[in-house]
Each structure stands twice: as C-alpha cells, then as structure tokens.
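Supplementary notes for students who missed Thursday's class. We covered one full example, reproduced here. Read the sequence, then the structure, then the short commentary at the end.
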Amino acid sequence: MPSLSDRLSILGKRHEQSFADHPVGEIHQTGHRQRLRKRFDEFGDESLADYELLEMVLFRAIARRDTKPLAKALLKKFKNFSAVIHAPEHLLREVPGIGKSAAQEIALIRAAANRLKRREIETSPVLGSWDKVLDYCANIMGHETREQFRILFLDKRNRLITDECQQQGTVDHTPVYVREIVRRALELSATALILVHNHPSGDPEPSQADIQMTKKIVEATKSLNIVIHEHLIICRNRHFSFRQNGLL
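Structure (token representation):
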C-alpha cells in the first residue's frame, strides 16, 4: 500500500494536471456560471441584474469565454435588456464577440416571448383582453427599425384567427394595398379586423396618409360586413388609437 507521502504526491500531481488541462480563467468561469445559475434557481430572475441575465442567455452560445463584458457591451449599445432582445442580427453582430450563435440565442428569446404573448390573446376574445393585445403589438413591432403594416384577423366571436404582417416598408413609409386586405380577410372568413402599424420615429401621431388609408379600408370592408375594430400605431413606449381619438 502506498505511504501517506506517496498518496499526497499522487494527489498533488493530479491537482497540477487539472490546472494544466483547465486554465485558471476557465475554472473561474465555471464557478461564476454555477453561482449565477444557483442564484437564478433559488431566487428567480429578480435576483439578477440585466447584464447577469444576458450573461446567462449567452452561456449556451459561448461555452468558455467570459460573457460579462459582452453582456455589458450589449447594454451599452442598446440601452436596456428589452432593446437587446429585440435588436436585429446585423446590429447585434456589430458588438465585438457577438457571432452567429450568440445572435441566434438572443433571437430565440425574442421568438419565445412573442409566442407566449400571442398565445395569451388567442385564448379569449380579443376585445376583452385589450391590454394583452397592446402588449403583444408593442412586443412584436415596437422595436422594429422599419415600418410594418400588420392585421389581426378575427372571427365572429372576436377571437383571433391569425395575425399577419401584410407589408414592410422603409423607416417612415409602408405601402398598403386595400384589395389585398379584403382578399385575405375573405380567404380567412374573418368578420372583423384590427389594423396595426408602427412608427420607428417614436412619434405615434398619425399622418394624413395614415388617416386616408384607414378610411379607404373601412369603406372597402363595410359592404362585406367586415368590421374594423381599431387601427393602432405602435411605438416603443407609446401608442395611438384611432377609435379613442374619434378617427374610427
């Protein structure tokens, strides 16, 4: 049987080999990640700062590198956690160290959040869940850098059939084709619509073109007994309701 000194020598060599195989920085990272995960498990996301939550999002995409500097760089560029999650891939990849895998991991969080919010408005009549509708629209469109025109198609019980992005334009203009809106509503047997578009400028006030376009859609759908419940203009932190402002 090996003596005590021999056993200590063997253990020492194994310890030295461990450090050779796993540099100090890597061991530190393993411990740091474990501590973050433990805190998240025990106390939830409220126990984590925004940069720590972003660190955890990046763990799977970046296996061995310290993700804290990347998380802080993302927050510095985009200002807050929500803006990071909604940032397009090409802007995310402007941050040194953010590659395809990391950008995809962030996009996955965004997709999951959108899916959950959509599910919330699918399970009950839309008009009785108005706060959830606004939240969904703000989440899916509020951070877009180009204008989109989206339609929520509703059945006769005002339940969501589907929502679709009909057109995507430039930073301040989206072409809208009334004939295509009517055609799609008839295909889906929709009896009511909610129109939604975003203003990337941050100003939710409608232009005269927005107002005239809405009138044309109302006129085209009226004879088909398709009701336009609302037209919303969405910005990051604000919205404009055509109905509440007497424009519908």
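Commentary. Residues 7-25 have pLDDT under 50 and may be disordered. Residues 125-241 form a domain with the Cytidine Deaminase; domain 2 fold (CATH 3.40.140.10). If anything here is unclear, bring it to office hours.
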